[in-house]
Amino acid sequence: MNILDIIRNYSLKDISIAVLASHSALQILKGARDENLRTLLIVEKDRLELYEEFSNLVDKFFIVEKFRDITKIVDLLRKENAILIPHGSSVEYVGSETFLNMPIPVFGNRKLMIWESSQKLKMKLLREAGIKVPKEYSIEDEIDRPVIVKLPGAKGGKYFFITNSREEIIRRIENYVKSGIVNNIEDVLIQEYVIGVPMYFHYFYSPMFNRVEILGIDIRYETNIDGLKRFPLIDKVSVEPTFIVVGNIPVVIREKMLQIVLKYGKMFVEKSRELIPPGAIGPFCLESIVVDDNNVVVFEFSGRIVAGTNIYIGYGSPYGWLYWNEPMYMGRRICREIKIACERGIRNLELILT
Ligand code: AMP
After folding, report:
1. Does some domain include residue 298?
2. pTM of structure
3. Domain count of the chain?
4. Ligand 1 mean position to 198 CA, how many Å?
5. Whose CA is nearest to atom 5 of ligand 1?
């Protein structure tokens, strides 16, 4: 599939933005509105009621039974000169094979998003980039400190657990395999549990300006781990922590630490070019634990927009203001990049789509 062949038939003056109705869709639609681009929303029937509330943001609805039916409407989307903006639900709902091969231009590097769904590959990229990561264990290793055990895919922290016992890891993973939650024991990641302050750094790599922008930071609010500190009986009742993301909170970091944040963003982009050409394009996130004022450990990345950027919809993030001197948030930033590329011509569009 050659994306260039598809966009050659596009009218660059009449591009539209297509998105699956989930995750950060509202933000992307609003961003397209702010940049005067047309919007297409692909929506599953049972979500329609919610998204119709925001029909002021949508030029056309495409109603599907399941998101993976997007393959049945690609011709219609292409007639609209559509560029699909992927988000955290895209690979998970559409399926990686379908996502990789959809004959429609996608903003960003699709392959990076596939790497992201493998716990092992994603840590390899971070490690080889020279970014500080938590220690990793194999199932044969002796466990010498608390670890967090993670399952593959963007499951939002579901089924993760913390332990310092190798026996417990083996027992629980075997149960996951038996009940079909995990296909293969090798897919599970056993990672040092780092104690500090979690911060999720939102970046945008811009091929149009050839720079990495720090567009915002959030903290995830997770149940029940974030509820436990409000539970007075914690010493008396044993409760297993869980890590299911339910919301996000804005945060800024001490200014001197922006240095290490920016450095990590640049290292990430550079290594991604070598391992997964053409490398990171547009939004990505380094999910991190800040240990002290010069020590940031990154425990995973997202190779596309993260839902934590939703906290800045409309009014922009503090850092967005510094670069743009106007309300700039991730959904809008994506659409701004597309708009500039369209204005500069097809060769530029090629730099931001795969
Ligand atoms: P993830 O799906 O990898 O983002 O993990 C879900 C949640 O588990 C994170 O938001 C953190 O709260 C926590 N977490 C994941 N990895 C680590 C780690 N290595 N050390 C401490 N906390 C972690």
Report:
1. no
2. 0.95
3. 2
4. 8
5. 157
